[in-house]
Every structure is written in C-alpha cells, then in structure tokens.
C-alpha cells in the first residue's frame, strides 16, 4: 500500500511537471481512451495512474499488437470501430493508420526507441548471441524458438532469419506468439528461447534476459503516439501525448529498457 501511494504521488508530480512543461493542462474530468501496443506499455503503466490522480481525468486503456490480425490487435480493434482517442504503437503501423485516415495527420509524436532482445527460462544456460554468427549458431541449436506476431517478430521472420540463411532450417521449430508476451511462453517452458522488444521481456517473471540482438542485425523500432480520427476528447488526447513525450517521463522509459527521444 505504501509503495502504491508513493508511486501515485511520484506519478502525479511527473504528470503535472510534464504537462506544465508542454504548456497545457488536461481538461478537468475528461475520459481519454488509449489503445497501446506492448512496447511502450511498461513506461506508460508506471506514469499514467499518477497522471489520473493529478488531473482528475480517467484514462481507459486497451492493449494489443501494433499489427496483425489477432482479435485484440490494434488494427482489429479499429476495424470493429472500438472508441479511441490516443493510439500508441510502432511508428510504421501508426503511419499506415494515418494513411488510412484513422489517425489525424500531423499528430504523430515519437516517444521512444526500442530494441529487440532474447530471453531463456529462469536458470537455463544463456546462449551466446554476441555476434551475428553466434546468434545463428544459437538459433540452429535451439530446440524451440518463440517470437512476437508484431513488429519485432515480423522483422525476425521475414528479414533476419532469411538474411542469416536459416529460415528453412528453423521454420519447423519456430512459433509466432499472438496475444501474449513471448517471455510468458518461455517462462512456461513452451519455448527454449524467445525474442521480443526488450521492454516487453523485462517485466515478465520466470525468465532470464540474455541481452539484445547484436548490433549488426539489430532493428530499432520507434514507438509513436497519435490522435485518433474522431476522438471524442482531442484536446485531452494531445495533452496526454505531450506529457508522455516530456522529459518527466524519460526515466520511466529508460527503466523499461527503451531510449526516450
């Protein structure tokens, strides 16, 4: 209870400081509906409760992948016309939503840079992934591989594995994970190694973080926010995005394993 109260106080200070720095305050008692993908979720969840307490606004959050056809993926939610004011997801997916006129043009704000990492089950040996060649050997030797159905997994399955020349060899033991954190699958023992955005791996218990992909094959994803077309609280949406992009939130972003802009 004491820890939660402290977190709310800190979050409230961060929110007021961040929004003041952006030159505006959230309108009183607005309800802001957010759709967010997993990459930015850890930092977001740390700061938003205090923001609600400081402003009197209620933030209603839905979670889903930036891309893909899973029922809870953001594109699927938008296809069902679920109400939303703010969208936070991989920049390429956000740009596509702008093109589809589902996000207001010019409203994109970049929040953080996110890298891909690897985990094993807690206590298991940590394979070498310090170079592209070492990563290739680890992938070939692994009994089973799990990767995300969203941005990081799309890169791995369509670009990296073919680039390493092993796509065919590992296809039968690779599994795309939808609507669940890859680390949770590894923690259960359903996959020997797993790959996802580092910020989505670190919060999960039962795994050991091995490290990022080697520099020469790393893919950095930018997570961005935008105002949804037809937002019912557009001013509050823009103020929330300004806050999330403010220096006050940078420590939470770094803590989650990402780098702020």
Number of helices: 11
Q: How many strand segments?
A: 11
Overall shape: it is: globular
Low-confidence stretches: 2-11, 18-27
Write the layout of secondary structure elements.
Layout: H1 2-22, E1 31-36, H2 41-55, E2 58-63, H3 74-79, E3 86-90, H4 91-99, E4 109-114, E5 116-121, H5 132-141, E6 145-148, H6 151-164, H7 167-170, E7 174-177, H8 182-187, E8 193-197, H9 198-201, E9 207-212, E10 221-227, H10 234-244, H11 250-255, E11 259-260
Parallel strand pairs: 1-2, 1-3, 6-7, 6-8
Antiparallel strand pairs: 3-10, 4-10, 4-11, 5-8, 5-9
Helix pairs in contact: 1-2, 1-10
Written overview of the protein:
By secondary structure, the protein is of the alpha/beta class. The chain is 41% helix and 22% strand. It is built from eleven helices and eleven strands. It has helices at 2-22, 41-55, 74-79, 91-99, 132-141, 151-164, 167-170, 182-187, 198-201, 234-244, 250-255; strands at 31-36, 58-63, 86-90, 109-114, 116-121, 145-148, 174-177, 193-197, 207-212, 221-227, 259-260. The protein has a six-stranded mixed β-sheet. The chain has a five-stranded mixed β-sheet with strand order 7-6-8-5-9. Helix 1 (2-22) packs across helix 2 (41-55). The longest helix has 21 residues, at 2-22. It is globular, with a radius of gyration of 19 Å. The two termini are 33 Å apart.
Short description:
This protein is α/β, with parallel strands linked by helices. It is built from eleven helices and eleven strands.
């Amino acid at each position: 209870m004491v820890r939660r109260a402290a977190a709310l106080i800190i979050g409230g200070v961060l929110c007021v400081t961040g929004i003041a720095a952006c030159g505006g305050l959230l309108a009183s008692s607005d309800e802001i509906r957010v759709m967010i993908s997993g990459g930015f979720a850890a930092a977001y969840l740390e700061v938003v409760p205090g923001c609600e307490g400081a402003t009197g606004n209620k933030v209603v959050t839905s979670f889903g992948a930036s891309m893909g056809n899973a029922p809870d993926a953001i594109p699927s939610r938008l296809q069902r016309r679920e109400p939303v004011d703010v969208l936070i997801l991989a920049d390429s997916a956000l740009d596509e939503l702008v093109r589809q006129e589902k996000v207001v043009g010019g409203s994109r704000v970049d929040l953080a840079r996110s890298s891909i990492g690897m985990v094993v089950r807690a206590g298991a040996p940590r394979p070498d992934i310090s170079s592209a060649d070492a990563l290739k050997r680890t992938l070939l030797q692994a009994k089973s591989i799990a990767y995300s159905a969203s941005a990081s997994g799309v890169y791995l399955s369509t670009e990296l594995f073919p680039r390493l020349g092993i796509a065919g060899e590992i296809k039968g033991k690779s599994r795309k994970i939808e609507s669940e954190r890859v680390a949770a699958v590894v923690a259960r023992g359903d996959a020997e190694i797993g790959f996802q955005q580092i910020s989505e791996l670190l919060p999960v218990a039962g795994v050991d973080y091995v490290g990022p992909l080697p520099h020469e094959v790393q893919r950095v994803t930018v997570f961005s926010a935008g105002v949804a077309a037809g937002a019912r609280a557009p001013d509050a949406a823009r103020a929330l995005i300004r806050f999330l992009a403010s220096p006050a939130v940078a420590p939470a972003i770094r803590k989650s394993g990402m780098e702020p802009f």
